Amino acid sequence: MPSVCLICGCRGRPGLDCCAGCEADLPAIADQCRQCGLPMPTPTRACGRCSRRPPAFRRTWPAFAYTGPVERLVHRFKFHRDLASGRLLANLTARRLAAVGAHRPQALVPVPLHWRRHLWRGFNQSGMLADDLSRQLGGIPVAAMLNRSRATPAQSALPAASRGANVRGAFRARLPGGRVRHVALVDDVMTTGTTLDACARVLRQAGVEWVDVWVVARA
Length: 219
Fold this sequence. Notes:
α3 packs across α4 (83-100) and α4 (83-100) packs across α6. The mean pLDDT is 93. β5 (182-190), α8 (194-206) and β6 form a beta-alpha-beta unit. Helices cover 37% and strands 16% of the residues. By secondary structure, the protein is an alpha/beta fold.
């Protein structure tokens, strides 16, 4: 059967469930803060927040803005177990990251879920995205260097000011043997960046020199 565009329902392309028109209309971020990926009027090395409190990650590479069809695909994947939408998001993200020249890391590190939430959801969306990104980008190793040591309320349910305390101490790093210099954290959506910052901090403390962030969408 021919592929079908998951956005408009028209014919897709071989190996990609998205037509050329819908891909061209996806909400890419033109200019951003280099560190946290926040959309900006012009390219910026560090926005005001990153200047005041620099995050532990060096650079953020968001494929798209969290709006329109990208937001709908993320919701279908994450909350309705539409794995085809997740695979499409990973494919589109890989194409975008390659187009903008994202630095190639030694490993992709998915943001972990606590085992209770993993059991309830049935999968870790970040892990599935990392696996698909690896396949699309020439087999970058996927490494489970992080575990979530305690359950926390969902960040989306909390005000921005409470999110840092919510994830403080929630992650532990376990690096493989050998030197790990550069990794990319993988997640679906970045909002305030507090979860990714907490993950990057424990990786840095464990000896990783350079942490980037790869996300499907930046809110």
